[in-house]
Amino acid sequence: MFDINKILRPNIKNLVPYSSARDEFKGEASVFLDANENAYGSPLEQQYNRYPDPLQHKVKLRLSEIKGVPARNIFLGNGSDEAIDILFRAFCNPGIDNVILVPPTYGMYEVSANINDVATKKVHLTEEYQLNLEGIAEVIDEHTKLIFICSPNNPTGNSINRDDIETLLANFNGIVVVDEAYINFSRQKTFIQELTEYANLVVLQTLSKAWGLAALRVGMAFASQEIVEVMNKVKPPYNINEASQQLALQALQNTDLVNLWIKETLAQRDNLVLQLKNLEFVVDIYPSDANFILVKTTDPNGIYRFLVEHGIIVRNRTSVELCEGSLRITIGTPDENKKLLETLQQYR
Fold first, then answer.
1. Is this entry keyworded Chloroplast (predicted)?
2. Cα–Cα distance between 193 and 338 in angstroms, integer?
3. Domain C-terminal end among 187, 218, 253
4. Which of 71, 235, 247, 274 has the maximum number of C-beta atoms within 10 A of its C-beta?
5. Using 50, 70 and 90 to split pLDDT, how confident is the model at 317?
6. Are 229 and 314 in a shared domain?
7. Does the structure show a pLDDT above 80 at 144?
């Protein structure tokens, strides 16, 4: 059975977090002389001289309405990458513990592990890009603290079998991290709905993809209140700046526009797949639940260079194991997709 105290690092368990001025006073006042801020304002039209809300209450309340989860179960980070890094720092003892990765997958999990001196055990996905449950079970040991699963997966685009993820959640005594950066484009339902069932579940999402706010760097982690409280202890006091909080809150009022973009992206994805299948150098196009497709070709390096010469940038994934020969292509606007297809038709 999962027990957070058994996997939490002792120094984090005993950590007294930094107490900022905005943590110690909550409420309204007319004169703030507690945080050594510049009382005269900012040399900008918008005033940014005051420190932001360290726990981003307004943004979390709006997310709570949209996601159907209590605000106490939401952590906000400087991109999902901050949430990933904090999970390593909170639960993995450097040089002792390990995590399980299931490549091909998002590369930041391994980078963050290496930064934190945490060993990685890799269990490759099957040829169908699904979990190898037997392989995962074989490498779990007493020092395995985290399992990272990206679903829909990057770079393959497919969703991971839900029953397989639940099998891990039910049988692993560490934390299972389900990264749902592309969930808005998926036919699968989010794992956020399972938070009450699994105390060891952390779901990552982001405002960088469907919400179009990549430049603001706002990532989300949904987890038990216990896990969120640990993550809040470890994070820097003001990890989400005021401009990002204000703009994210504005964007979160406009769900209709985002839903319209999602529908258009899915329609464009289906059309792009149909058109690409007519090209003789396209070997296969893998099923996608994301805003990109993985396309296997006869000459990935040549095609990539040809597109670059014409001002079109895709991602060459041929060096990634199980993605040999493949290019990852993000779904663009109708005009961008048209230009891509017209250019590819010229390739010989």
1. no
2. 38
3. 253
4. 235
5. very high
6. no
7. yes
Whether the Cβ atoms of residue 285 and residue 301 lie closer than 8 Å to each other:
no
- Scan for tokens 């996997």, then name that residue: 7
Q: Burial letters for 82-115: b for 16+ Cβ neighbours within 10 Å, e otherwise?
A: bbbbbbbbbbbbeeebbbbbbbbbbebbbebbee
**What do you get for the CA distance between the two ends of the chain, in Å?**
58
- What's the domain range around 230? 4-253
> Do 260 and 191 sit in the same domain of this protein?
no
Residues 340 and 244 in one domain: no
What pTM did the predictor assign? Answer: 0.95
Instruction: Name the token pair of 327.
Output: 């290019």
Q: Both tokens of residue 189?
A: 């339902």
Distance CA 251, CA 207 (A): 9
DSSP string, 124-163: ---TTS---HHHHHHH--TTEEEEEEESS-TTT-PPPPHH
- Is the separation of the CB atoms in 203 and 149 below 8 Å? no
Report the CATH number that the domain containing residue 219 is assigned in CATH. 3.40.640.10
Report the distance separating Cα 216 and Cα 168, nearest Å. Answer: 33
Same domain, 271 and 295: yes
Burial track 23-49 (b if 16+ CB lie within 10 A, e otherwise): eeeeeeeeeeeeeeeeeeeeeeeeebe
CB 73: neighbour CB atoms within 10 A?
A: 20
Q: Does one domain contain both 269 and 181?
A: no
Output the CA torsion sign for 38, 41, 42, 48.
positive
Read off the pLDDT of each residue in 15-20 and give the average, rounded to a whole number.
90
Is the Cα torsion angle 335, 324, 270, 266 positive or negative in sign? negative
Could you tell me the pLDDT band of residue 28, with boundaries at 50, 70 and 90? confident
| Domain's final residue, options 194, 222, 253 | 253
Q: Same domain for 118 and 21?
A: yes
Closest C-alpha to 314, from 347, 274, 278, 267? 347
For residues 229 and 267, membership in a common domain is answered with no
**Separation of alpha carbons 44 and 218, rounded Å:** 23
